[in-house]
Amino acid sequence: DSSYSFVVWFVMFISCVDLWQPNSASLIHQNATVDVHVNRNDTQGLHSRLKQERIDYRVFISNLQKEIEKQTGYRSSRKRRSEAQYDYEVYHSLEEIQSWMFETNQTHPDLVDMFSVGKSYEGRPLYVLQLGKRSRPQKKAVWIDCGVHAREWIGPAFCQWFVKEAISSYQYDSVMTRLLDQLNFYVMPVFNVDGYRFSWTTDRFWRKTRSKNHKFHCRGVDANRNWKVKWCDEGASSHPCDDTYCGPYPESEPEVKAVAKFLRKHKKRIKAYISIHAYAQMLLYPYSYKYATIPNFSCVESAAQNAVTALYSAYGVRYRYGPASTTLYVSSGSSIDWAYRNGIPYAFAFELRDTGYFGFLLPESLINPTCTETMRAVKAIASGLLKKCETDRDRFPYI
C-alpha cells in the first residue's frame, strides 16, 4: 500500500532531519506546514519523494552554511570596544554579551544592578540585570528572560535592546520614566548560557541545555519542558535524544532550578513573567499544558490584545495571540505555566519574527525592526500593570 510505505518513509525521514516548526514529529498533522532543515546530501532524495507524493514544498534558504557565516564571521563593523560603541544590530557571542552587562552595570549605577542567580551545568554564572529607579524597596517587578532555546538568537538581541532603550530613554520618554520609577525589571539576556555558547562554537541550531545523560550519548534538556508543572506530560519527550526532552526530573537543569528559586523568592512582587522565543509571530499565555481558560482570562487577554496592537503600530506586523495550547500547541513543563501556577498573574511567551522564511536565521538587518516593535509590546504589558484590571480581581486569589 503506497500510503503505508509513505508513512514508514516519512517517519524515517523525520528522524534524520532537523525539525524547525513544529519542534516534534508528534505535532505534525494533515494540511499543516512543516519547516525542516535538511543536509545537502539528502535534498535530492527528498525533492523527488515530495514530488512523487504530490506534497507542496518551497526552498526558503538554499545554502544555510553561507547564511550562518554571515552572522558568525568576524566583521570589522562589529563595535566591541565599549558600551557607547556597542552595536545592537548584530548578534553577539556570550562573552560579548557578558562584557556588555558588566559595562552597563558600571556606567549606570543609578538605574542598573547586576547579579547572578546561580551557575549553569558547565559552571558559567547566570547573570541578571535589575533595572529601575531605587525609590522604594517593595516595588512591583517584571521578569524578562531571553535565550532559553540556544538557536533563537533574536532573543538575547532583544533583551540587550530592551536594556539599551530603557536606559537611554529614561527621563526623555514619559512612559519609560514612569515604568522605571514605579517598577523593577529583571532582565536575563541569556538563560541557557551553555547552549547559546555551543550554538556559536559548534552547532548553530542547537536548542537544549548541555547537561550530560548517563545512559545515552545525547546531551541536553529542553529548558522549556523542565519546569515543575504537569512535567513530562503531553508535548514533551522522555527520550534524551529528542529536542523536547523534559529531563530526568523537574528542575534537573541548574539553569531552570536557579531561575525558579529566584522567582519563588520574589513572587509576591513579580507581577509579570515574560519569556522571549522565536519564531512564529505570536504572543502566548497559559495554559500550555491543557485546553482550559485561566481564572483571570479577561485581564490577560486584554493585556495581550493591547501588546499586539502596540506591536502592529510600528511596522504593521501581525501577531496572533491566545492561550499557548490552542494558539501554538500543547506542551507540558513550560515556564509560563509554572510562573502562572506560582502566583505571577501575567505570564507571557513571545514568539518573535518571522513565520518561517528565515526561521532561526533571522538576518541581522531585521534585528532593529523586530526589537523596535517588540519593545512597544513589552512596554504596553508593563504599563498595564500600573493600572488595576478590575474584571476578575475577586476570582483571581483562588487560582
From TrEMBL:
Signal peptide coordinates: 1-19
Gene Ontology MF: a single term: zinc ion binding
GO biological process, one term: proteolysis
Residue numbers annotated as active site: 351
Cofactor(s) listed in the protein's UniProt record: Zn(2+)
Protein name: Peptidase M14 domain-containing protein
PROSITE patterns cross-referenced by the UniProt entry: CARBOXYPEPT_ZN_1, CARBOXYPEPT_ZN_2, PEPTIDASE_M14
Gene name of this polypeptide: CPA6
Organism of provenance: Amphiprion ocellaris
InterPro entries: CARBOXYPEPT_ZN_1, CARBOXYPEPT_ZN_2, M14A-like_propep, M14A_act_pep, Peptidase_M14
